[in-house]
Amino acid sequence: MPWPSRKRDKGAAADKKEPDAKIAKTEETQKKEEEEKSTKPPAGSSKSGWKNWKKAKESDAGGEESKQTYCHWLLKSEPESRLEKGVDMKFSIEDLKAQPNQTTYWEGVRNYQARNFLRAMKLGQQAFFYHSNCKEPGVVGIVKIVKEAYPDHTQFDQKDPHYDSTSRKENPKWSMVDVQFVRMTKRFIPLSEIKAHHLAHKADGGPLKNMMLFTRQRLSIQPLTQEEFDFVLSLEEEKPH
């Protein structure tokens, strides 16, 4: 039996004709002035602001604004017992490993942003299994998405702690995905260690500078960039601090 719910949410033309040589000179001067403007930062910009402005200009030159893409995820689950409406919310990575084919559904998400992240997940993408709401939270393993988003049945179960009386079967509010155990991380990677790197990266522009684990802490489903995923995964090769 799958685990109980436990996841928490141009200007006008000239009036008179001018000699060709003068026109050419004027156009050349205008072109030069425009080029000079395009290579100068806006008035009053700081040095760092100039760097950001220049980077934005270089991005615009490509014709498209650069967009953040997420291809990995972080899923929070509670490894310690906690009753909610008489139902134990506990579900550790060991509990996942004990499921048939080490696979089950990830249900009970009742936050719209987290739900949208669930709906964005693609088959085969990997996620960190993260123990939360416990003495020492952190990353304990890796899972993969084996079934993309479909309606979460617990929203219609009046006995379930996450029952939603406003949701309708013809237009369900909430979704879930199926996940499968991949492997344990080579060591437990605690939140405290990841946070230390996040703070350092905020100062030097490292891959964890904008990690959602610290900007939207309460979300139970969080996206990770390839760089964020790779960096956190690399920590399993290091000795704990």
TrEMBL record:
Locations listed in the record: Nucleus
Organism this protein belongs to: Crypturellus undulatus
Disordered as annotated region, ranges: 1-62
CDD domains listed in its UniProt record: EVE
UniProt name for this protein: Thymocyte nuclear protein 1
UniProt function note: Specifically binds 5-hydroxymethylcytosine (5hmC), suggesting that it acts as a specific reader of 5hmC.
Keywords assigned by UniProt, alphabetized: Nucleus, Phosphoprotein
InterPro entries recorded: 5hmC_binding (IPR052181), EVE_domain (IPR002740), PUA-like_sf (IPR015947), THYN1-like_EVE (IPR047197)
Any single GO CC term annotated in Swiss-Prot or TrEMBL for this entry: nucleus
Composition bias type Basic and acidic residues, residue spans: 10-39
Domain EVE: 72-234
Main location: nucleus
